[in-house]
């Protein structure tokens, strides 16, 4: 009764109480107990919307640190590019050496062949299948 009669004192107290309670309500939503779900899966929780998730912007770096990071990244990329180029060059050199070795081996094989010229073509007709398989044509003039 006294509060109602004394109008000056009551509103001041209520303002303080209402301000503090409203700031608490803004920070935390009151926890409303959930009823039993219709599906019976009581272990399932309510989904939160993406808009309710609090996102942090992360730590802001100073300009000097950013520039230093960029330079380090450039240096690392340049070194990795050099290493890749070096590996590629080594691979290409290896391939070239292999080609040259195969070519040299083929030339040596051709040089060391024992060649017997067949002057009588009638001989070829008399040969057996196995002997015919062994015959290879060669250019004997360009040796």
Brief descriptors of the model:
143 residues; citrullination; chromosome; nucleus; 0% strand; phosphoprotein; CCDC86; mainly alpha
Order of SSEs, N→C? Answer: HHHHH
Mean pLDDT: 82
Are there runs of 5+ residues with pLDDT below 50, and where? none
Taking all Cα atoms into account, the compactness measure Rg is 47 Å
- Helix-strand makeup class: mainly alpha
Oligomer: single chain
Give the overall form: elongated
Alpha-carbon distance between the two ends: 132 Å
Work out the helicity level.
55-70%
Number of DSSP E strands: 0
Percent in strands:
under 5%
Tally of alpha and pi helices: 5
Main pleated sheet: none
Plain-language structure description:
The protein is an all-alpha fold and about 140 residues long. The chain has a domain at about 70-110. The protein is about 60% helix and about 0% strand. The chain contains 5 helices and no strands. It has helices at about 1-5, 10-25, 65-110, 120-125, 130-135. The longest helix is centred in the middle third of the chain and has 49 residues, at about 65-110. The radius of gyration is 47 Å and the shape is elongated.
